[in-house]
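Retro notes, item 3 of 5
We never archived the inputs for the FE2/S2 (inorganic) cluster complex last cycle. Fixing that now. Sequence and ligand:
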Amino acid sequence: MIVCVCNRITEAEVRKAARSGYATPEAAYACVGCDVQCGCCLDFAQDVIDEEQGKRPRLRLVA
Ligand code: FES
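Structure as it came back at the time:
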């Protein structure tokens, strides 16, 4: 799943950055060589980071 359309950053990349200690979308994006562009993705990216770092419960999709 793409988290950031502007930079084509995937959820897996954001989760990997979060596991490496990057706690904000800006830091996680910099980790993969990108900068925030439009900013539309920041809330979702922060949720993904917070989940990965155990700061919020993991969201589950119902099939
Ligand atoms: S969608 Fe991430 S900066 Fe635009």
